[in-house]
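Minimal example, chain plus nicotinamide-adenine-dinucleotide.
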Amino acid sequence: MTRSISILGVTGSIGASTIEVVDELRRNGADIAVEAVTAGGNLSVLAEACRRLRPRFAAVADPAGLAAARAALSGLNVEVGAGPAALVEAAARPSDWVMSAIVGAAGLEPTMAAVRRGATVALANKECLVCAGPLFIQAAKAHGATLLPVDSEHNAIFQVLTHPERVERLTLTASGGPFRTASREAMAAATPDQACAHPRWSMGRKISVDSATLMNKGLELIEASYLFGFTEEKIDVLVHPESTIHSLVHYVDGSVLAQMATPDMRIPISYALAWPDRAAVSTARLDLAAMGKLTFEAPDGVRFPALGLCRTALRTGSAATTALSAANEVAVQAFLEGRIRFLDICRIVEEAMAALEAEAGFSAKSPSSFDQVRAVDQAARDAARRIAVNLAAA
Ligand code: NAD
Ligand code: MG
């Protein structure tokens, strides 16, 4: 395998798994050159990533962080940039393959820079797709970019989507998160550390909280709808605590195809990196006899209102999904910083959506440009911040 790659969000959880995959494939003889990496902060982790990957260019998000980043990366023979333009430059520099693993809508601009030059984009960041939706997909088509889903459920669907025209339904599986069996009272009192203690996956804090509210699954429903072109009614969610079946595709003849594997993000990452081939990766092999059984249950829409909010947003239109994801980012941040309680997250999202709907109405303004997307995103963040401040004061 010969590849030139860039990794956006190299210091995160997906970034770390991507480095492991690159290291292993290199040890097995692959010729992988790293053009660029980006980081939100954490210069010591970035320096270690640069030591292992040997990129030509490294960008940090903070525009005031150039001198510190240069100092941390000195001696590594890497050009350093800082600020939003440097993140975009990292993605715009020539490489065959770009891992999009910045968290949140902050990943949109850099990811679009990769899309606009027709790169192959391994898409871990779901928020940029939920945020820009149809515009993102149209841009990928227009510029000849290849989108390879890395989110494990979407990667699973992509792997078994043999006959896209003959699909009846999709099923996204969900682990159920740390509060699958928790009472509403326990959820009301949940701390950030409890919410981030995911039973199956070790991930960044934002997606971990999203998994605890099931907002992650709702965002994934929107992601699946935009990526694969299915309406909301054709996508089911099934709780499957073992996280062994990563999703299912139901065909018109009654056949159901699933992708199974131990829960390890190196599998979808290596799939995207080797695609259309597959590469040998030393992940734990699935032992079904040892597991004995797999279990399934329907999601509880009362304790987990996020799924319903996401379905409503998807039916309403792309301005609503932009707003939902933005409001959720603000609410999750407020929860992680201890300003609001766990159950307030979905409440803030719901109230922010209602406030925006009342102000202008979503259906009338499906964004037709990225500037409009940014305006809706900003309005939703402002509304969510106001509501969070009121809740914190109550
Ligand atoms: P993380 O928090 O561990 O890492 C996020 C990365 O983005 C870090 O490199 C961080 O420095 C960078 N970053 C944060 N804020 C930034 C900003 N404002 N500007 C530029 N860079 C910034 O998150 P993660 O768990 O690696 O998840 C990354 C993305 O992948 C998320 O969108 C998540 O939903 C998605 N994803 C993650 C997993 C997983 O297993 N971790 C699985 C599926 C999808
Ligand atoms: Mg997922």
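The longest helix spans residues 370-393. The chain has three domains: 2-149, 154-291, 317-393.
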